[in-house]
From TrEMBL:
Single annotated GO MF: glutamine-fructose-6-phosphate transaminase (isomerizing) activity
Top EC class, one word: transferase
Compartment annotation: Cytoplasm
Protein name: Glutamine--fructose-6-phosphate aminotransferase [isomerizing]
GO cellular component: cytosol
EC assignment: 2.6.1.16
Gene Ontology annotations of biological process type: amino sugar biosynthetic process; carbohydrate metabolic process; fructose 6-phosphate metabolic process; protein N-linked glycosylation; UDP-N-acetylglucosamine metabolic process
Natural source organism: Gaiella occulta
Residue numbers of the full-length protein present here: 246 to 610 of 610
Amino acid sequence: EKAGFETFMLKEIFEQPEAVAETIGDRVRHGRLVLDGIGVDDAVLRDLRRIVILSAGTSYHAAVAGRYAIEEWARVPVEHDIASEWIYRNPVLDAATLVVGISQSGETRDTIEAMKLAREMGAHTVAITNMMGSQITREVDSVLYTRAGLEVSVAASKTFTAQLSLLFLVALKLAQVRETLPQEELRFILDEVYQLPHKLQTFLDGNHPIDEIAQRHFEKPFFLYLGRNIGLPVALEGALKLKEISYIPTEAYSAGEMKHGPIALLDENTPVVVVATDHKRVYDKIVSNIQEVRARGAHVIAIATDGNEDIQHHADDVIYIPRSPAFLQAVLAVVPLQLLAYRIARLRGLNVDQPRNLAKTVTVE
Ligand code: M6R
């Protein structure tokens, strides 16, 4: 069942090309996007005034990424919230809002309760889940499935990259009906989404300094993760992975926020993982954040895009991912962070598939 892998988590990390390929599947046909499962007429999608995305844990990080893509490509305001917070804050909703609930298991009580409330309040509700027939599918108006296959490891990996890919398709569908992207650009991004499985495979087949980095840092008491824009959800997810399976305290911050507090945590003993992938609007800002980190003697591990030599002047270590349009890089950039967390947890001799205190599905509020 582990197909020769030492753990389920490692197997599932390596299954990501397939998970993403299955999720995209026949939804992209000859450069055309078909996303019927969304269950809302194009006319309704065209008139939407707002989207709210509700979820927990890793699925929440997918929501953060989804927001960047939807706002950028489809120009609809998106709000995301942790389901268990949203439900108790007396939320404001109207019928021109689409509420998307993301839960890989489809059984997370917090997210299910939030979706029930959203439906009661008259919004159109859509679930994104990996589990056919799960509870959430019975509480919403329509369902979009990720097709990542069964995920056994408590720490999510392939379901996250599948969620991201599906959210990108949702964003592109909205852009298509709302005509917010030029035709050629839409086609180009769709083609690039289609190439993600291949690029994931290229990364997984390549040689990367992940083991060396893990060896150097696995006994460190604290890790900081930084990202901006689409790099932020990647940083959040990388930090959660390390925390969950290695029990090392981590923080993830929007890089611009670092100077407002977390910078006080840095010293020569702090590894700082920075998502510094190509994004014309924020790359230079990220480099200044790296310089601020280095000035405090902390150690920078950068995730950067193939071909970026400049980053080597700034970071102590660089892990390169294949080139892809800015947002799509999130799918690729999270993989080295999953592997880094994995290697560190193994070096610490921990049970990666079954971390202490955690359950795969959280069916209590
Ligand atoms: O099944 P869900 O996507 O609703 O689960 C949400 C969280 O419980 C889940 O992502 C959790 O944070 C994982 N342990 C992450 O690795």
